[in-house]
Amino acid sequence: MYTIGIDLGGTNIAVGLVNEEKKIVAKKSSPTLTNRKIEEIIRDMAELSLALIRENGLSEKDVSAIGIGSPGTVDGKNGVIIYSCNIPFDHTNVREAFKAYTSIPVYCGNDADVAALGEAYAGAAAGCDNAIMITLGTGVGGGVIVNKHIVAGFNGAGGELGHMVIVRGGAQCNCGRKGCWEAYSSATGLIRMTREAMEKHPESALWKIAPTLDDVNGKTSFDGLRAGDPVAAEVVKEYVAYLATGLTNIINIFQPEVLCLGGGVAKEGQFLIDLLMPYIEKERYSKDVPQTAIKPAVLGNDAGIIGAAMLGF
Amino acid sequence: MYTIGIDLGGTNIAVGLVNEEKKIVAKKSSPTLTNRKIEEIIRDMAELSLALIRENGLSEKDVSAIGIGSPGTVDGKNGVIIYSCNIPFDHTNVREAFKAYTSIPVYCGNDADVAALGEAYAGAAAGCDNAIMITLGTGVGGGVIVNKHIVAGFNGAGGELGHMVIVRGGAQCNCGRKGCWEAYSSATGLIRMTREAMEKHPESALWKIAPTLDDVNGKTSFDGLRAGDPVAAEVVKEYVAYLATGLTNIINIFQPEVLCLGGGVAKEGQFLIDLLMPYIEKERYSKDVPQTAIKPAVLGNDAGIIGAAMLGF
């Protein structure tokens, strides 16, 4: 038996056929083209799925479920995508809409949640009932898995771990609050800290790595640290301390078996985790129990497809 | 069919017989006497349970489960109480130990988690699959219910919502971190803020309500506010703002259908909630979805017994 996972993004619809070993055996994709009616986007998702089935010599009865991971607020229970910033969903019953194309049952989830589910079934947290994935990208995204199910709250809007205030009255966050974890621990936050340090320190070797402030990215200060620049070391130290504060909060709240880190900044992998651990080990609340392991996410872009394919379980 | 709930505290063992309507129909209790062997405390819990069954004209086959809520870290899956600050558990398999007394299956949970379960089954959050209870007492306790089950993490130590840093580098918390929510939003935190304000303001009417600093409790500043004292109003305003910061974090993370407030400070009830709501409404992340209701907990001390009795479900 197979399942299909759809990673619906603002740019592309990526569809994957997933086997019982939770491996993607075939993929198809097409542009999302968000400036059109939602019905057309749904039709493309359905037709890509059916084409993938056909082209792999299967029939609809070989596929037990289709799962869709979408940005935004999702009512997973009812298969409804309530709202998404870039894709024109408006309380759209996707499960119902798919019935015009196929009788395969359809499930929906938020994209960050679904990526966490992918890592919990087939990635860094494979075999764990309780896992969390934190994505350190433009923002700080979170997906929480408890007993192998997504925790999204009664309204589908939960899991906004990045919008947890850790510095009351601190840096302005896009959400309107001040001092959210996201304002410090996203790639955007790291870039801001790096630029501020460069402006204060014209002598820093960071200026060799990023000749202008526009060249700064989430890797710049880590590269500076590895090149032996003390200003970069200070930026990384500050960034890591903020990141550890939020991660320790999450551990105290959830005590997941594995907490995995994905997104741009997490490409630093074990190097970043080794910097984080002393802070977390010192600050976490429960010390006399088995401890949460922090791991780099391993599925990359496939997490969304695999996680979506697992929604039907 | 009945279930039995045991609220094991540092002072008393309270045992209740709970019917299918989730009401306590009879109670028994005896002192915990924590300075003795854990085997004796377990024996008392079992004997109180059996006496309660007998005295109510029932037999063991009328009782489907015994649940125990205990302070500390609990491995609910295996019926093991790992550690408790005041009661001499040490990875004690309580489920196994009860077999010497009865064949009724035994379940265990942390006391704050179990109280939340009680409110979710039969109290302020009755009928809700997703609910959270926050206890504003000596500390800030938390119990998280998702899909009618306790979220305690893979090691039983989760739900430490009070040990979420909201003011990085802020007030010292007993846990070793600085700026934990508990340091600001517990009754202890409120008492500290009230005393500091009184010391700064000898003219404040708070000195009439609490003639010495030792007389200050979690109600003092609220009484001062109601008596029209501007210093008290300022203390309450500050306290409420900190409390709202943590509550909004919790809502953004979990989006429970109901978040109920228990413990000493929550005796202010709807008065406190009316003060909180403007902060929460302004700051919560997802505004275009059904919203979490904030309610006073209603079961009081019975929450522990009823919640423990629900552990077997």
Task: Give a quick rundown of the structure.
The structure is a homodimer of 313-residue chains. Chain A contains ten helices and 13 strands.
Which helices and strands, and how do they pair?
Two copies of one chain form a homodimer.
Chain A: E1 2-8, E2 12-18, E3 24-31, H1 38-55, E4 63-70, E5 73-75, E6 80-83, E7 90-93, H2 94-98, E8 106-110, H3 111-122, E9 131-136, E10 140-146, E11 149-150, H4 181-185, H5 187-200, H6 206-209, H7 220-226, H8 230-254, E12 258-262, H9 270-283, E13 293-296, H10 302-310
Parallel strand pairs in A: 1-4, 4-8, 9-12, 12-13
Antiparallel strand pairs in A: 1-2, 2-3, 5-6, 6-7, 9-10, 10-11
Question: Could you explain how this protein is built, in words?
Answer:
Two copies of one chain form a homodimer. The first copy, chain A, is an alpha/beta fold. Chain A folds into two domains: 2-123 and 302-310, Nucleotidyltransferase, domain 5, CATH 3.30.420; 131-296, 2-Layer Sandwich (Nucleotidyltransferase, domain 5), CATH 3.30.420. Chain A has ten helices and 13 strands. Chain A has helices at residues 38-55, 94-98, 111-122, 181-185, 187-200, 206-209, 220-226, 230-254, 270-283, 302-310; strands at residues 2-8, 12-18, 24-31, 63-70, 73-75, 80-83, 90-93, 106-110, 131-136, 140-146, 149-150, 258-262, 293-296. In chain A, the strands form three sheets. Chain A has a five-stranded mixed β-sheet with strand order 3-2-1-4-8. A five-stranded mixed β-sheet of chain A has the order 11-10-9-12-13. In chain A, a hairpin with a 4-residue loop joins strand 5 and strand 6. In chain A, helix 3 (111-122) crosses helix 10 (302-310), helix 7 (220-226) crosses helix 8 (230-254) and helix 8 (230-254) packs across helix 9 (270-283). The model of chain A has no long low-confidence stretch (mean pLDDT 96). At the A-B interface, strand 10 and helix 8 of A face strand 10 and helix 8 of B.
